[in-house]
Write a structure and sequence with these properties.
By secondary structure, the protein is an alpha+beta fold. It has 2 domains: about 375 residues, Alpha/Beta hydrolase fold, catalytic domain (Rossmann fold, 3-Layer(aba) Sandwich); about 210 residues, Jelly Rolls (Sandwich). The protein has 12 helices and 25 strands.
Amino acid sequence: MSDDPANTGAWIVEPAKYLLSRTVSHKVPRPTSLYLEMPDGVKLAMDVYLPEGERPHGGFPTLLHLTPYYRRFALREGAPASTEACPNAGKFRDMFVARGYAMVVVDVRGTGASFGSRDSFRSPAERDDFLTIMNWIVAQDWSDGRLGATGISYVGAAADFAATTGHEGLKAIAPISAVWDTWLDHLYPGGLLLTHLANSYDKLMRALDLDRRKDVAAYAYFSDPYFAGPAAVDEDTGGDLLAQAVDNHRANVSLADFIREFPYRDSTLPYDDSFSPDCFSPHPYSRNNNAGLAVLSISGWMDGVYMNGAIARFLTLAGVKDQLLIGPWDHGARTNVSPFREEIEPQFPLLAEILRFFDEHVMESDTRLSDEARVRYFSFVSEHWKTAETWPPHHSARILHLAPEGKLTQTSPVTQTINHQTDFSFGTGTNTRYGRLAALDIKNYYASWEVRSENLLRFVSEPYAQDTTVSGHPVLTLKLESDQPDAALIVYLEDVFPDGTRRYVTEGALRALHAHESAPPETYAANWPYHSCTRADAAPLVAGKPTLVRIAILPTSWCFKAGHKIALSVSGADKDNYVRIPYGRPGNWKIHSGGNEPSHLELPVEQNGAL
């Protein structure tokens, strides 16, 4: 099946049809490349693309793309004319500049051909830079003063940060696979550090920042043999300025080291007690967003934990112009991850959807966007796009109880305990929802799941009587007892086919130390169990004392077909992704079923389905 939205009824104006109405009107030129000096004297490299053709009265609206992944590569001698020097920004350039938008692509400080260094991951200094850049753009004679910003991952979060400057010219942003809270949505889901992700991403950034071309080429995104490091700006004909800029980058932060300074959500740097994860996350600054800003939040069901960020952004900002789009995609919507796909490459015309959003809110054209649903999401198995006005879609809760003999039952069992020994050798491998975040080129997700997960503690339901769609965050309540003071609680939902085949659906994680629930901050609207993960709320498990823990499993939309079963698998480790907790001391668990406050699974079932 395909993720193509045509003829699904989820759009009044389908993206592909909208694109037909927006034919190419301008030629895409070679960029003008220059340095722009920031107030602190640091010079940033930028490429400016001005559409060739008729300039509208008042100038062009401008698309902003703020990247740490090179605004443009230099190309080796002999490179074919078809070689794309902008593997990240190029597709946006070709879509938008050809249709009447100017585009400005910037190497953020400490990256590419830009000077300076980064003192943190997503440094607050970049936010100040973005304000300077936008002020420069709107002062140019080719600008009409209206701006939009978009991009994938870091670049999408940069669009969020640009919005938090409150710049009046920024009319709309479309963050794709972008965090809202860097600590929770990216590096510490459930309070558990993703060790492989931090280390792998750090290696990539060191290779890019220091122009280590052999190391850069090891990553599929940047493997073109004609790439020759970051492109110098036009004035730097001898490359001397580029060499000086790269030398500045030696001082750049190491993410793998830096993120370990923040074991709690409110940890601060030991040498700066004003610097916490709030300083490198968009959401705390979002109070500064213009009230009229339009935001299109985009993610995919296999997008790490980023779909939580997309949903929280949508619920927090809650503007009438805001929309949420979640597809059957991985990080950056590079792959259709549906097990039932016909093609690996997504067929959804995502850039056409973003173009329409910006045409409506930046160009201020009437695209009938206000007639569309505010939420669109893809449902697996039925392989169908659906709509809603908020998230989650209207549903009812279905409760399944964890029972002895590996059962999930609709009725609560008698009071018993289920014993479990943590296995630190268990791992999900690298072809996981977190692998793409680590810059791995993954096409098939969880392909070895059945073999890897065979020995997990598992609870299985009876076969469903009819098709049942789960859309939202399933929530697992565990009444847990352990002989160790901490644990990594990692749980998985599976679809069990009539022939016994098990397919991975989604997962959730929580460090037991952070079992305490609290209201989320006003800038992170979560309608699922929220754990502050602060030092004050942290509480070790007490041996012999059961603790009630609620785990928000990552959201999905999945149709369990009639005759299928749902399974819940439980682990205390994933050696390939998460930090090991507690160190060297695998826990002996007792899961309490039945009685008061029983262990159970709550499923957000769409109302047209039932167990």
